[in-house]
Amino acid sequence: MIEFKQDKAIYLQLVDRLCDEIILGKYKADDRIPSVREFAVMIEVNTNTVVKTYDYLSAAGIIYTRRGLGYFVAPDACDRIIADRKKHFFEQQLPELFRQMKLLDIDIREVDALWK
């Protein structure tokens, strides 16, 4: 069972988890992912939450269905996820990071030294 954060909808946390697993290679292009029921039991959530998760991923082009066979990872899913996350990082997280750095008077060289 995973611990869910209070500040984000559970289905979106499941979206993040499946996307992480795709990026990390647990599920590759055209691999079958667990059925709604299998995933709900595995994660210990309601099947309706998993349906919402899979609907979101389908609409985003990350997964697709094969009638009677289940859900599968789209051929370009990994590229889509990475592109979307990079966009989010550059548009949302990085500006906030820079704002905090300026507010706290943190020089980019300090960050660079920690990075290395």
What tags apply to this protein structure?
single chain; about 120 residues; mainly alpha
Helix content: 55-70%
Strand-residue fraction? 5-15%
**What is the string of SSEs from the N terminus onward?**
HHHEEHH
The overall average pLDDT, rounded, is 95
* Major sheet size, sense and barrel closure: 2 strands, antiparallel
Distance between the termini: 35 Å
- The low-pLDDT segments are none
Distinct helical segment count: 5
Supply the helix-strand structural class: mainly alpha
User: How are the strands ordered across the major sheet?
Assistant: 1-2
Tell me the quaternary state.
single chain
Q: What would you say this structure looks like, in words?
A:
The protein has 116 residues and is mainly α. Helix content is 60%, strand content 7%.
Produce a short descriptive summary.
This protein is mostly helical and 116 residues long. The protein has helices at 10-23, 36-43, 47-59, 77-103, 108-115, and strands at 63-66, 70-73.
Secondary-structure topology with pairs:
Blueprint: H1 10-23, H2 36-43, H3 47-59, E1 63-66, E2 70-73, H4 77-103, H5 108-115
Antiparallel strand pairs: 1-2
